[in-house]
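re: that complex we talked abt at group meeting.

here r the seqs, copy pasted straight from the sheet so there may be weird spacing, ignore it
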Amino acid sequence: MKTAARSVPLREIAHGRTGDKGDRSNISVIAYDADHYRILVAQVTEERVAQLFAYRRPTAVKRYLLPKLAAMNFVIDGVLDGGVNGSLNLDAHGKSLAFLLLGLEITMDVPEEKK
Amino acid sequence: MTPLSIGCAAGFSGDRVDAAGPVVNTLAKREGARVLMFEVLAERTLALAQLARRSHPDAGYEPQLDSIVSPILAKCLEHRIAIVSNFGAANPRGAARRVAAIARSQGLRAPRIAIVTGDDLSAPAYRNLLARELGSALDGIELVSANAYLGAEPIAKAIAAGAQVVVAGRVADPSLAVGPAMAHYGIAPDDWDRLGRATMAGHLLECGAQVTGGYFADPGMKDVPGLHDVGFPIAEIAEDGSCVIGKADDTGGLVTEQTVKEQLLYEVHDPAAYLTPDVTADIGGAEVRALGRDRVALTGVRGHARPGRLKVTVCHEGGWIGEGEISYAGPGAEARARLAAEVVRRRLEGLPLRIDLIGVLSDVRLRVSMSHAVKEQAERVGREVLALYTCGPAGGGGVRTSVRARLETLSCFVPREAVHAGFEWLDAR
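got the structure back, here u go
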């Protein structure tokens, strides 16, 4: 089958959830299809995630890999305005951050006819 | 060995109070040991409970306790379903007394109620201990609460001794499930692999519906049937600590590999070292597999030695937060909202305001907020936004303002020996 490279939002091949502890956020990124896990590993990097959340001035971004779950876990420090208790953010827990990450554009081969 | 089923009917203070009914109905039909757990304490919930207790000595436990317990207490006692919860918050003895009173008012035989003790470190006797760990951060602050995260052992001992209700304050959330597993299977406090597995079962349960389709739906991508009636989870925990997650019968929601994976990684940092007072759980090699409809197995979890120190969360007063909001609509809405923001900024020159414009594609809502040590200063934000009615740009409406006390948290770790965890019976004095 002929394929062509296409740019798609991460949300089309992965799902995830945000958690928070103090001023630290964690965001899981989980492939729907285990075959897509390698795309996540190659393209959803610490650098890109740090860039995505640069406006929140993270102090560190660390990625953990969980191949048996076809998942990754990002731990992002210093993005919650000090943490839920004192934050002036409307979403003080930063619970909506996972969906910002799922908006990241990734490039993948898709069958021509689906283009 | 008979099986162990643990249902969870609350994932935070403020969760649905009608969640427990279907969980209890389902547990009542099960063989083996059965436990109903309610997890209701977040980081700041306990500080709010301490403040409540200060203004009324009988208060300080979960405010919804009556609504949570009354509908299901009789059935739990009748079917020998133990109730385990941290709904004691800042006053576990008060909560235990209240549960006894509910039983009396329903004409039930008095249940055996155990109270987990030792988490509260707010007494002056612990000030030096906290000062050693927190240093100057503790200087001159008004301490609201200080609680150590206790582990599963007091809960396990209480259940093994015949408790029908176990009331705790601050314990690590997963320990609410680990305690019953230790008691039922006789798991030793240094059997790390089994403790690690039971801990992750507790972790999957501790947020209630977050593992059964709650907090998961994304229309078109992740659809959830009957979200309005989402069922709460029930874990079957095996002798080796591994678990199968399911949910209450005849409810909405769903349990899939996806819902379980999202919750498995929720609030996890290093997957190889999920720290609790009981164990260092390791999900680096964990696997999740659907066994059938709404039944998902978690396997491959390991455990390593527990941390030598216990985490303590300290809450103290941190000034005030003032807020004001106002709406603008139609042509030029954004420009008028920006002008309004400028007016407030000029009026409150020098104060550290945060300005948000919300919903720029439709109505524009201006939100101004500020954190300040002095309440009167924080109140100025709301007053200036309110004054925009007559003094600001055209067409502003729907002002809402608020001022609320701010609580700050600090964390530290204290030696295990400094904390005296245990349990006592309600009628012990």
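couple things i noticed - Chain A touches chain B at residues 11-12, 15-17, 19-22, 24, 26, 28, 30, 32, 64, 66, 68-69, 71, 73, 75, 83-86, 88, 90 (CB under 8 Å). The radius of gyration of chain A is 15 Å.
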